Each structure stands twice: as C-alpha cells, then as structure tokens.
Amino acid sequence: MTTTQSTSIDPIDRGGPGAREARGPRRAGRAPGILGAGIASMRLELLAYFRTPDTVFFTFLFPILMLGIFGVAFESVGEIGAGPDGTGGITMAAYYLPGMVAAGILLSGVQNLAVDIAREKSEGWLARLGGTPISPVSYFLGKAGMILLTSIAQLGLLLGFSAVVLRVELPTEPELWLRFTWLFLLGIATMTLLGIALSAVPRSSRSATAVVLPIVLLLQFISGVYLQFTMLPEWLQNIASVFPLKWLAQGMRSVFLPEGFASAERTGAWDLGLVALNLGVWLVIGLVISLLTFRWQRKY
C-alpha cells in the first residue's frame, strides 16, 4: 500500500526536479496559451452574440434596416448632386450608405462592448473569470475578434443589400477599396477600445443601456450620419468634430460618394489626413482609459 501511494503522487506535486522541468516549458508556452484562450473566447463570444436577439437587432441589423427605411422613404426625391448637365447624381440610398457604414462600426464597437462588459461586470461574471488563470489579454482578444468578425459580416450584408435591393452602385476603383480598408480597420480598432473604456461608466447592468444608448444615438445625429453635417449650426459642428464618428463618417463618404460631394464638407475637401489623425488620437485615448479603468469587478 505504501508503495502504491508513493508512486501515485506526481513528482510535480512534490516540488522535486520534475516540477522545475515542467514549469520551464509552461513558461515558454505562455504566449501561445494566451492566444489559444483568446481564440476559444472569441468562439464563445460569437455564439453568445447571435443568441441574443436584442444585440443582433440593435447592433447587427440596425444600420441595414435604417438604410432600407431612408432609401424607400426618400426614393421619390430622385437623384441628388447632379451636375448642370444632369449627370453625376446619386440616389438617397447611395447618399446614406457611408453614414450607415460608419454607424455600424460605432454600434458594433462602442455600444455592443460597453453594454456587454458592463453587464458581465455587474452580474459578477467577470469577478469569477478574474479568479481563473485566464489572462485579461485573452479576454479582450476574444471580444475584439468577435467585434471584427461581426463587423465584417454586417458590412458584407449592408453592401450586398445596398447593391442588390437598393441598386446602389458601389465603387469600382481599387484605390477606393484600399482607402476603405484602412478606414474600416482604424475605425473598428478605435471604436472597440472606446467601447471597453465606456463600459466603466454604467453602475449596473440595468443602467448600461440607459447610459450608452443616448450617447451613440446623439453622436449619430450630430456627426453627419442622418443629417448633412454642414446643415447643423456651427457650434454643433464644432462639438461633433471633437468626436471620432464625425471623422469616420467623413472618411466613408470619400469612399462611396462621387468626388464632387467633397465640396459639401466643412472645408470643401475630404481631409483624409485629419480623418486618420483624429481616429488615431481617439484610439490612443481609448487604450489609455481602458488600461486605467478596467477591473475584473466594480469597486463600490
């Protein structure tokens, strides 16, 4: 019996040489472990995302539904922005498309993450997760991966709906799609970090939607998503210009609208350098706030 008991105890448990040998490889494999846990977390986040009807409706399908409503409601207006010779005009659906693309990125990153993380924190799920060996890096890799994949799927559905149902002519120049790619990636990274940062504001899961929804809704109305930006009072334009959605929407207009529409912008140009600068600044702000405020559980 004594022999059986002693041989059933792993050398690692006794802290002998076997323990030191086993710990070395574990340290070396820590980074792949973080990545593997992040991928597993992303899979779980995706399953949870599409199993929540209100999340799917208000973040995934909302821009598509709004574009459909605007496209149908203003169909009788005809084409806008036509030149003196009657050419170069676009439908209202085409005009609203870039704003809906920008709004979709905002909803996916800011609204979805801010509400989701605040709820997980309030309900104690994050506190339990913090008691496990999982790294915060793996947790946020899962969140960021979910946001990226759902945003790509949302974008594909939105563009497909625009082209097939609303007959919107999408860009054909490779240069414009290259511009769209960096705008999308920079925009989704910025909105993801801002969503994480904003999740520290709600005090409970019940107040999360009440806190976050008015913010994202107000930003959409003052940032040129639903209304032409230059139609707003100058003081409101100045306020909107502080926030990233205005710049993301402006960048998207440079992709999907004819070049002549740049004259309708505040400076008469697309100002892509300023677009990149402002989004980059907000990305850094979101990162810093996230690092300073994130906790596995709220401190009351």
From TrEMBL:
Membrane topology note: Multi-pass membrane protein
Keyword Ribonucleoprotein: no
Superkingdom of source: Bacteria
UniProt entry keywords in alphabetical sequence: Antibiotic resistance, Membrane, Transmembrane, Transmembrane helix
Record-level Gene Ontology MF annotations: ABC-type transporter activity
Main location: membrane
ABC transmembrane type-2 domain segment(s): 54-300
InterPro entries recorded: ABC-2_transporter (IPR052902), ABC2_TM (IPR013525), ABC2_TM_bact-type (IPR047817), ABC_2_transport (IPR000412)
GO cellular component, one term: membrane
Transmembrane feature ranges: 56-74, 94-115, 146-168, 180-201, 208-229, 272-294
Residues covered by region (Disordered): 1-29
Keyword Membrane part of the UniProt annotation: yes
Compartments where located: Membrane
UniProt cross-references to PANTHER family, sorted A to Z: DOXORUBICIN RESISTANCE ABC TRANSPORTER PERMEASE PROTEIN DRRC-RELATED, TRANSPORT PERMEASE PROTEIN
Protein name (record): ABC transmembrane type-2 domain-containing protein
Phylogenetic classification of the source organism: Bacteria, Bacillati, Actinomycetota, Actinomycetes, Micrococcales
